[in-house]
Design a protein that fits this description.
It comes from Clostridium thailandense. One of its GO terms (molecular function) is site-specific DNA-methyltransferase (adenine-specific) activity. Keywords: Coiled coil, Methyltransferase, Restriction system, S-adenosyl-L-methionine, Transferase. The protein has 858 residues and is α/β, with parallel strands linked by helices. It has 4 domains: 201 residues, Up-down Bundle (Ferritin); 278 residues, Vaccinia Virus protein VP39 (Rossmann fold, 3-Layer(aba) Sandwich); 102 residues, no CATH class; 109 residues, no CATH class. Helices cover 55% and strands 11% of the residues. The chain is built from 35 helices and 18 strands. Helix 14 links the parallel strand 2 and strand 3. Helix 1 runs parallel beside helix 10, helix 3 packs across helix 4 and helix 17 packs across helix 26. The longest helix is centred in the last third of the chain and has 37 residues.
Length: 858
């Protein structure tokens, strides 16, 4: 079975190979458009099969039956399908018909154009035009575009290759597990990274979407959601993912998008994620120029939504081309228009206008909205005075592909108490670097969401700003005014520099050591004068004592036991997942559980533990549970699949099978756990080769030493470069020639023979290793098929959780080692006193004077 990760990789690799020099933001329209047409064709065939009561047929047989039915019953067959799906694809225009033409050599690009146009016409005359109209318009999918190829033959070749990329994917089956939607979303994200600045038109980075979606989903009862700058629809779909299945079924999706190609992308994306057409209302239009959606019954309120999410264009210039006035109901709340040069607050006010009384809004904007003055300052003041801003979350810079500037997420609500404080979160330092981009890890997202939900104050990270504070700052909401960065620099102590010793106040600041191991710490400190101490033993010895202290051992053992119990709790659950299991919910439950376990320990960072489990899901569980749900734990454990490798390059580039690999159990793990004796034998031979290579290297170096015994015997057997300079190895041919010339039993002959023996032994060992590795590889590949249930249990436990307990225990040492490093730094800082430095200066001066006297002027 092909997994979602494999589909993603295959499609993206295919996209990279096929698009050539075409701009990624443009190529995505072709690739994703044709992928969606395959989905429509597959859905049409599936519906025909079900409604006609046909049994198991091959895809080609099904296409033939569909064509026969149309010939026999006319339009009635298609109307029946349309009654179920609200659309249909005629038999002669199916994606599968294109594939037949490709296989028979009758393919023409015009057939694809005719198919897309026919779909547009069939939709236009139905009552469902708004759902699908214009999806394949020539402005989006222009198959005559020379970027696809400079002539018809080139375009035909490239379009055929793109069609074949989706040929074997059953889009209906893939949609049921949301695999298809995930692959589509993945491709959108990959195209965004390739598109650079153009990505801002259609994509919000996944980790930013996650922060917004989780906050919105956890803080409101959501039945409807609206994104006024919907892009590809990723924000709407991320919110959906965090709602339970029952809520998802009835969720109403609204969105508006100015760019037509992106508007089409949104509708395709939602439909591929299983959103029913009647539940989505997406409009192609300018959000700011004219309000939408409007409520005819309440013209001054607009349609209200339980959740509003948006990532609008940053600081859009000339946004007010429609000449809107303050009287526009969207701006009535603040009684002011945002400046024409920056549309940030215009988007915010539009979204807020459509937010329901008990709803939550999340919007991404540039930092400038927090402190810019003039009309923006007035708008910010009104929003704060009316208590609409609930939280401000500062994110790291360089998160987006289209801009390197830092951004903020602003959370807004209408049901806040008038004197409620505003939560300020500075999450700007929580990220890792991946390539050129900064990326929020799962733990960073979890911390932001938790702090928001708990309205928690954490020094250096979050603060609840009161109305008085905000007024005192003249409504300037720049984050550093409210969240002061933690000063980790320890100030210098003049007395300690002059007289030595570590200041006692610095020792008192080592809070973790003082709380967890105060006796061990204080037993190695000696007071040398009031307020100053010195260490009585080396830091290495102190570190060992602390990490082996009974209280630390007890805590570590406790965490190890709790971790093993935690794994035991989920082990059977994970092994028994099936198609009814909510995998996302299971993952979130496991992540929440580990946080609860670690929260009992004051000095352990629970989010580091959270990240450990998140990475197990990312690296293994997401892939494996998908396969287990489809085939069963032990069956998939005994399943292998071809190991495909790429060979050749350019026009000769091809994929070939190179043996087999386990579907979920890695071959290297099977070898390590079940063939340890064979692995050890191979490793011993490798070590023997290393020893031989070391001995040969010594002989080479000795041969280069003039007048040495080795030089006389071996120099002429060394490899030489074009300048006749000796290299770093022996030449076998020269070695044999020298052996023929040397007298037997002479020292020269013995040395040459020694080299020959070593080289032959190395060659023999290398052959043995290759042979044994092949035997082991074959044995492992066959063993996959006959693994016992007990072996599968052992191997999968090792794969998923082999080092989890150790990693959790290591969290105990992190804060301890951090403070021990501080102690090391303090000891080194004050190790040299002023008298010591003076003595060193005097000594150096004396040496200098002595050297001066030795100088003789000639």
């Amino acid at each position: 079975m092909i997994t979602s990760e494999e589909i993603k990789r295959r499609l993206w690799n295919g996209a990279n190979e096929l698009r050539g020099s075409m701009d990624a933001s443009r190529y995505k329209d072709y690739m994703l458009g044709l992928m969606f047409y395959k989905f429509l064709s597959d859905k049409t065939l599936e519906t025909f099969k079900v409604t006609s009561g046909l049994g198991q047929l091959s895809e080609n047989e099904l296409v033939d039956e569909y064509a026969k039915a149309k010939t026999e019953y006319g339009d009635g067959v298609e109307k029946m399908i349309q009654g179920v799906l609200r659309y249909y694809v005629s038999p002669e225009y199916l994606y599968q018909t294109w594939l037949k033409d490709i296989n028979s050599g009758d393919f023409e690009v015009q057939k694809v154009t005719d198919s897309l146009n026919n779909f547009e016409r069939t939709i236009a005359v139905s009552g469902d035009a708004s759902d699908f109209k214009g999806l394949f318009s020539s402005s989006t999918l222009d198959l005559t575009d020379t970027a696809l190829g400079s002539n018809l033959n080139e375009r035909s070749k490239n379009i055929k290759a793109l069609i074949l990329l989706f040929a074997d994917l059953n889009m209906v089956a893939l949609q049921k597990g949301d695999v298809l939607g995930d692959a589509y979303e993945y491709l959108i994200g990959q195209f965004a990274m390739e598109s650079g600045k153009k990505a801002g038109e259609f994509y919000t980075p996944h980790q930013v979407s996650e922060v917004m979606a989780q906050i919105v989903a956890k803080s409101s009862d959501i039945k409807s959601i609206y994104d006024p700058t919907v892009g590809s629809g990723s924000l709407l779909l991320t919110v959906k993912k965090h709602l339970n299945k029952d809520v998802q079924k009835d969720l109403a999706y609204y969105g508006q998008e100015k760019n037509t190609a992106t508007y089409n992308l949104t509708r395709m994306n939602l439909l591929l994620h299983g959103v029913r057409p009647e539940k989505m209302t997406i409009k192609n239009g300018d959000t700011l120029s004219k309000d939408w959606p409007e409520d005819p019954a309440n013209p001054n309120e607009g349609v209200q939504f339980d959740a509003v999410t948006m990532n609008p264009p940053y600081s859009a210039k000339n946004w007010n081309k429609a000449g809107l006035k303050v009287s526009d109901p969207r701006f009535d709340l603040v009684g002011a228009l945002p400046p024409d040069s920056k549309g940030d607050f215009a988007f915010l006010l539009h979204g807020l206008y459509h937010l329901g009384t008990n709803g939550t809004m999340a919007i991404v904007l540039p930092h400038g909205v927090l402190f810019r003055g003039s009309s923006e300052g007035d708008i910010r003041k009104k929003l704060l005075d009316k208590s609409r801003i609930d939280a401000i979350i500062g994110l790291p810079n360089n998160l987006f592909t289209n801009t390197g500037i830092p951004v903020v997420i602003i959370i807004l609500k209408k049901n806040r108490k008038i004197d409620a404080p505003v939560l300020i979160i500075d999450a700007s330092n929580g990220f890792i670097k991946v390539g050129k981009q900064n990326v929020l890890q799962e733990k960073d997202i979890a911390k932001i969401v938790d702090v928001y939900m708990k309205k928690a104050e954490i020094p250096g990270y979050s603060h609840l700003a009161t109305r008085e504070e905000i007024k005192g700052n003249e409504y300037n909401m720049n984050i550093p005014r409210y969240v002061e960065a933690m000063d980790t620099e320890i100030s210098q102590d003049v007395d300690a520099h002059l007289l030595g010793g570590i200041p006692q106040k610095n020792i008192d600041d080592l809070k973790v050591l003082q709380v967890l191991v105060p006796d061990v710490l204080n037993s190695c400190l000696q007071t040398i004068r009031p307020g100053y101490v010195t260490l009585t033993k080396p830091i290495s010895e102190l570190t060992s004592e602390i990490l082996n202290d009974a209280s630390i051992i007890t805590m570590s053992d406790e965490i190890r036991t709790k971790t093993k119990n935690y794994i035991k709790q989920y082990w059977d659950v994970l092994r028994n997942v099936d198609k009814s299991t909510d995998i996302v919910n299971l993952m979130e439950e496991m992540l929440d559980s580990i946080k609860k376990i670690l929260s009992d320990y004051k000095y352990i960072d629970v989010y580091d533990g959270y990240q450990i489990i998140a990475e197990i899901w990312k690296d293994a569980l997401s892939h494996d549970t998908e396969l287990i749900a489809s085939s069963g734990f032990y069956q998939i454990g005994r399943t292998r699949e071809p190991n495909m490798i790429t060979k050749g390059s350019g026009s000769n580039k091809r994929e070939e099978q190179d043996g087999w690999v386990g579907s979920i159990i890695p071959s290297v793990l099977i070898a390590k756990e079940l063939y340890s004796v064979e692995l050890e034998a191979i490793e011993n031979k490798r070590n023997a080769i290393q020893e031989i290579e070391s001995e040969l290297a010594d002989l080479v170096e000795a041969a280069k030493v003039e007048d040495s015994e080795e030089n006389n015997a071996l120099y002429d057997a060394l490899k030489k470069n074009e300048h006749d300079e000796p290299g770093d190895a022996f030449d076998n041919k020269l070695l044999k020639e020298e052996l023929k010339k040397a007298e037997k039993d002479s020292e020269e002959y013995k040395l040459l023979k020694k080299v020959e023996t070593l080289i032959n032994k190395k060659s023999s060992l290398t052959k043995d290793i290759k042979s044994e590795e092949n035997e082991l590889r074959n044995a492992v590949q066959e063993r996959i098929l006959v693994l016992t249930d007990e072996e599968i249990d052992k191997l999968m436990y090792k794969k998923w959780f082999g080092y989890t307990a150790d990693k959790m225990v290591s969290l105990v040492q992190i804060p301890l080692k951090a403070e021990l490093n501080t102690l090391t730094m303090l000891q080194e800082r004050y190790a040299s006193t002023l008298p010591d430095i003076d003595m060193e200066i005097d000594s150096l001066m004396s040496e200098f004077e002595a050297l001066k006297k030795e100088l003789v002027v000639k």
